[in-house]
Amino acid sequence: MRGSLRARIAVAAALAVAVAVSAMAVAGYAIVAHELDRSLNLGLQREVTRLVRQEQARPDSWSPSGPCVFLAAPACVQRVGTDGRGEGDYALPVDDGARAVAAGARSAYYRDVTLEGYPVRVLTAPLAPGTAVQVAVRSDRNAESLNRIGVAFLLAGLAGAGLAAGAGFVVARTGLAPVAALTATAERVARTRDPDERIEVTGTDELARLATSFNTMLVELRHALDTAQRSLSAQRRLVADASHELRTPLTGLRTNIDLLARAERLTPRQRFDTVEALRVQGTELTGLVNDLIDLARGDDPEAPAEAAEDVALDRLVADCVRRAQRHWPRITFESRLDAAIIEGAPARLARAVTNLLDNASKFSPPGGVVEVVLRDRELTIRDHGPGIPAEDAEHVFDRFYRAASARGLPGSGLGLAIVRQVADAHGATVTAEAPEGGGTAMRVRFPAEPGT
């Protein structure tokens, strides 16, 4: 069915009322017809009973009514013998059934006939041995009453259906007001692209719950838009920062490649130094690209997530410390690792721990000590270097951020950003602290085990 929901509800209400009223009218019509017919028959029965009693008391006390020309009330009456002949003028038709009743071979019965152009109901009943009595009244009055009642029922049904349609429209308009508000809000959001619109919620019925759900959806939409905007801004910032960071190693590579192009003019020592510079710059460039790839994958919500598994964090940290010892032979690593099992991606966790160890080693003096402690699901990596200036403490985990004291050291400023990204992905928190005695302590606190 086409049209608005309000119109459909109004039409449905009208049809339902029309069907109900029609059913009630038909039932009422049938009941009234039955009662009128029963009343007509009772009147004839009472007249026959009176005549039988009168016949029994005084057989010759009454006479037939004569011709039933006007069929006046209460009834037209005549006696009928077994031969079919009656006393007086024959106003009522006599059939074989009447003779059978007079002979006692049949019980009383009703018969509808037409007399003088009028419909007539005739009751033929036994009166005395060998005699029957016929009583008749006009029955067209019942038909006229039924016609008037039928017309009244029809008009009442039409009026009820009209009132139901109007009431249905009013009820639909009132009941669907929240739906109209929801529709208007959705259209405004689609037109203005502003998810800050809200629907006023009243009551606790299904429509109120629908409005609440729609408001919740708008809140989630605003959150999604804000997240997407932040992600887009972060991507743009990442691209801009990466372009800036790539410019320096690429410039150095081009310069050294140009030098090698005139290798015949260089001394062996100069060629060796140039090749070593190319190797260092290539390594730095590879590290930067790998860091960018890791950050981009971590930011991409559609990137396939690494499978999570139970990880023995103490063993993972021990492996990372052994690799760091080989990479930083001049640094001493002291480890105190308690057993800890966490759920996570081993490769990403290893990358974060390695970055923390490299960062601590890079800022430690030659022969310095890096302390690695794992206790109560908290990993602490401390160096004894110059520490973090107070003005840089809140930025050390930002991408491409490098403190003034670190700008002369190798690195791209992405290592600690990757650490925070990995920590966030595992529900952990990472902080940088300035402990007593100098240096820097990086703490990664993993969430407690479920049920503890």
Largest sheet: 5 strands, mixed
Residue ranges: pLDDT <50 for 5 or more in a row? none
The strand line-up of the biggest sheet is 6-8-9-11-10
Strand content: 15-25%
* Distance, first to last CA: 59 Å
How does the overall form come out from the CA principal axes?
rod-shaped
Question: What value does the Rg take, in angstroms?
Answer: 54 Å
**Estimated helix fraction:** 40-55%
In DSSP terms (H or I, runs of 4 or more residues), the helix count works out at 9
Mean pLDDT comes to 78
The secondary-structure class comes to: alpha+beta
Q: Count the strands? A: 11
Q: What is the H/E order? A: HEHEEEHHHHEHEEHEEHEE
What would your notes on this structure say?
The structure is a single chain. The protein starts with a helix and ends in a 7-residue tail after the last strand. The protein is built from nine helices and eleven strands. Helices cover 54% and strands 15% of the residues. The protein is of the alpha+beta class. Helix 1 packs antiparallel against helix 3.
Task: Give descriptors for this structure.
single chain, 452 residues, alpha+beta, 5-stranded mixed sheet, 4-stranded antiparallel sheet, 11 strands, 54% helix
